[in-house]
Amino acid sequence: MVTISRRFLLGSSAIAFAPALSARPSSTTAEPDLFIGTGGHGHTYPGATLPFGMVQLSPDTDLERWDACSGYHRTDTSIMGFSHTHLSGTGIGDMLDVLVVPTRGPVQLLPGPLTDPDAGYRQRFTAEHARPGYYRVTLESGVRSELTATDRTGWHRHSFPAGPGHILVDLSHMILDRWDKPDQQPLIDDARLAIDADGTITGGRRVFRWAKGRRIFFAMQVSRRPDRVTFYGDGDAQQPAGTTAVAGRRLKAVLHYDDAGSAPILIRCGISGVDVAGARANLAAEARDWDFDRTRRAATSRWDAALGAVRVAGGTADQRTVMATAVYHAQLAPTLFSDVDGRYPAMDGTMRRVPAGGAAYSTYSLWDTYRALHPLLTLIAPDRVRSLVDDMIRQTGESPYGPLVWPLQGKETGTMIGWHGVVPLAEAQAKGIPADYAAAWPAIRRRSFDFAAPDQDNSLGRDLYDRLGYVPADKVFESVSRTQEYAYDDWASARIARAIGQDADAGRLLKRSGNWRNVLDASIGFARPRFADGSWWTPYDPIQLGHMPKPWWRDYTEANGWQATFLNQHDLYGQIAHFGGDAAFEARLDALFAAPSTLPANAPPDIAGLVGQYAHGNEPDQHVPYLYAYVGAPWKTQAMVRRLCVDMYRNDPDGIIGNDDCGQMSAWFVLSALGFYPVDPVEAAYVFGSPLFDRAEVTVGAGRRLVVEAAGNAPDRPYIASVTWNGRPWTKSWIDHATLVGGGRLRFVMSDVPNRDFGRARADRPPSFGKPA
């Protein structure tokens, strides 16, 4: 079995300047287009949710193909119904809990295939509309469906034509995948549905899809009591009249209305990962009336505040729409997963309660999001970051696997490689975000040094990595990428260790963080599979995915030799020296972007968005365009970043070049379009790129604003001629986090010709490995 890989299983003082910063952009960011990313391979959904909300109430169009990981694809022509939980931009599907199907005519209990929109309970649709916190569509049955949400509840308003109609609640609805083996493990093994005397419908199920064994519970109320309710058990067996509860695996209920069109039917549904009582409490706390429009207005207000953190002027109308949508997508996950009373399902299988004022979260896509999503949030949502950091520390201690990898609804999926949960913690500590980092240290230390501690696929070969200095390609799959990513996690862990006074461990980790050297063959200038006897794989071909002793075996993670060569983020001057100095490293970067965009037949779809062999559609190399700054050639970074911002993001359903990956692809765009990017988040510094907009305003917390201006900006003027910070010349090709979050004015003067002197001096190059250039 291959490593659990998301795609195999199917990227001065602000106060002093306050008067000067008061002017607002004359042309502000457009309304987000929630359909960007719902086509192509973006894997996003258009439904209703709140920033980081527990409920994601959205239409489902497909369950089975890879591009339906979110349950929705813009090219599909029929809707099955509306479910309450979704993943945004992931490469593995799950969720789609508690499907609601409002319709008319004979009761259908199966959706029918995607290829036949007229089969089963599928319905063609028209007049689809989505905006943050609200979704609307008209179904072919004549039902007009509207959706909105609070943090923990989904709200529906279904307006039926005159006459009878019904609402199906399908608790068997879920993502299906060719890797699932229901004959060995039922995908649902414990489900219950019931109706109370007051008409509240409750239930729950345990699901073995991606997050094996996760539980979800719900409590649902309808504004109009149905004339009758019919329950269906396993095999769609209709239960006797008068049945008020059913148990099994694949359960359904139908709410019948003799005159469904006499008034809109409202549904409010609370969910919980703890129990039905938690779902009831969430519903009672967040759904105190039946005012759908008030709830929608509240959702709009929440989103207006969140989206207002970044405002831009200039660029094209489409680019402003892309920016607004990217800011939206960057605030969908991680998702809230504690109830109103603070209870949540802990990673050790117990039920726990967060401290007063705290919150627990799910959906940490950390292999992706440590790179840009979490750094972006430290700028635009610092209060949320404090909550996330507290939660990551808490869950790190609770998980049997220590640092978080890809936790989903209380289950550690172990997806991808490394244990990158340490990176946002180290980054937050470096940026001065207060938290009890020492509380996470025992679990981090165990993952780092206790080779008897339990492993999942993400951390295989730790003992060999420690003993040999690399993960051997003939012992563990994806060894080259593992070695480099384990080294980066050592770097982040060393930062935490040093901050809490664990100097001996910090020294050991810091030394081991140099293990990246052991899989970078300096004689050829490429990352290269290396075997346990110390020999290199030969004959070497950087286009290939590795030496492949088995059909599913790869030596790189969602990459080939070209892309894996530049995985190093934390010791860039070490790698530059390893490859022969500035000129040699610059030439290697040039070669990456100029190479033929050829991929082997067995390449995964993740290696997308190619510029030469650079793959923007996936995360491993997304920092690489900024590496020219480390060799004193930031003008090449400026040209490439502008190209990527323009070519890889469009105002179109297929407008994201790869999976959005819980906002990582979007966060890359937001930061890069602002003009800077965190090559190494733990360094707490940003390398300048090429600002896309003439002016941007970023709210950076506590009433402070960062204004970014790009004088003389134009499509053919991507180069930085000069920079000032609060009116003073700035010669560096980078800026630190502490300066940016203090607020102020960052002004670029743009040009159509490169200024080859800007950022060229060694003293003006970005820091790396905790040291200046």
Provide structural commentary.
About 25% of the residues lie in helices and about 20% in strands. By secondary structure, the protein is an alpha+beta fold. The chain has 17 helices and 36 strands.
Structural topology:
Layout: E1 48-49, E2 56-60, E3 78-79, E4 81-83, E5 99-103, E6 123-131, E7 134-139, E8 144-149, E9 153-159, E10 165-170, E11 188-195, E12 201-207, E13 214-222, E14 228-232, E15 245-248, E16 252-257, E17 265-272, H1 276-286, H2 292-307, E18 310-313, H3 317-329, E19 335-336, E20 343-345, E21 351-353, E22 361-362, H4 366-369, H5 373-380, H6 382-398, E23 407-408, E24 411-412, H7 422-430, H8 441-449, H9 462-468, H10 479-499, H11 503-512, E25 520-521, E26 526-527, H12 561-564, H13 572-578, H14 582-594, E27 610-611, E28 614-615, H15 634-647, H16 664-674, E29 676-677, E30 685-688, E31 695-699, E32 705-711, E33 719-725, E34 728-729, E35 734-736, H17 737-741, E36 744-751
Parallel strand pairs: 32-36
Antiparallel strand pairs: 1-2, 2-4, 3-6, 5-10, 6-7, 7-8, 8-9, 9-17, 10-16, 11-12, 11-15, 12-13, 13-17, 14-16, 18-31, 19-22, 20-21, 23-24, 25-26, 27-28, 29-30, 30-35, 31-32, 33-34, 33-36
